[in-house]
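Retro notes (design track)

What went well: tokenization of the new backbones is finally stable.
What didn't: we kept losing track of which sequence belonged to which structure.
Fix going forward: every design gets posted as structure first, then sequence, in one message. First example under the new rule, 266 residues:
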């Protein structure tokens, strides 16, 4: 058993030592109290891509914590983009979109991994400062929509947005999801679904003691498209009119071919 644990520690410590030079440590209450990062900082989207697991790990300087109990929480977010949330009303027997609220700067993916339930680690005021939890995630709205109709409260739209993200596996919260190996090393893993999309993802690592954040670190992960996926995406953004024409032509060609083959069978 001891030999197996020692082997696991060596397996984790080696990539940790190689990757530490790439870590960007954030402004921490206690500098260098924690050093952490991702096992892999670049991921690629190919035609067969259906998501990937992100492994995050690090080390905490227990001596500087005076051997007192502490917790670790990790957030992973990105890429940020606007999101429109609609409210449906029943009109003439049909459900139709009636009102909307546009959120700015919403992470397409957001996960929180922790050693214990977040409510046991810190009070909501401290969690709010660092956005430790889906319930305290900042969801800003467009300036021109600061005052939506009185019958539509902002909380309704926020609840709908969070519900949709959770259902798609894009907003995730997991307690007791961080494993410690030995005295200082820890490791956690989260799944990034294909719907999360390409872009920059930022991981924040926090050490909490006595209900307060006492140290933090940051790592960046980039997800890129390659091959045909990258070329199609580039064409759509650089030449949208040409991309639209080609899409229409291809759709017409496929439709014509399907009709021809169906007609021949009949």
């Amino acid at each position: 058993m001891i030999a197996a644990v020692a082997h696991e520690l060596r397996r984790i410590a080696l990539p940790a030592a190689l990757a530490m030079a790439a870590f960007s440590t954030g402004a921490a209450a206690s500098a260098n109290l924690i050093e952490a990062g991702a096992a892999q900082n670049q991921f690629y989207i190919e035609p067969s891509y259906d998501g990937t697991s992100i492994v995050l790990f690090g080390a905490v300087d227990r001596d500087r914590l005076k051997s007192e109990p502490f917790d670790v929480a990790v957030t992973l977010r990105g890429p940020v983009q606007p999101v429109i949330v609609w409210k449906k009303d029943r009109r003439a027997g049909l459900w139709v979109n009636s009102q909307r609220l546009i959120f700015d700067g919403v992470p397409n993916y957001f996960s929180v991994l922790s050693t214990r339930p977040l409510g046991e680690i810190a009070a909501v005021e401290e969690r709010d400062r660092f956005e430790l939890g889906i319930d305290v995630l900042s969801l800003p709205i467009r300036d021109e929509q600061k005052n939506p109709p009185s019958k539509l409260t902002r909380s309704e739209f926020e609840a709908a947005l969070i519900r949709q993200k959770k259902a798609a596996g894009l907003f995730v919260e997991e307690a007791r999801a961080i494993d410690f190996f030995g005295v200082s090393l820890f490791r956690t893993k989260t799944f990034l679904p294909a719907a999360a999309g390409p872009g920059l993802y930022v991981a924040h690592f926090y050490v909490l003691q006595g209900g307060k954040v006492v140290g933090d670190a940051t790592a960046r992960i980039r997800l890129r498209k390659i091959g045909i996926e990258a070329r199609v995406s580039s064409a759509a953004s650089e030449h949208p009119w040409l991309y639209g024409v080609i899409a229409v032509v291809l759709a017409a060609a496929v439709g014509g071919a399907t009709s021809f083959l169906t007609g021949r069978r009949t």
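Added context from the reviewer: The helical segments are 2-19, 118-121, 124-130, 154-167, 228-238, 240-265.
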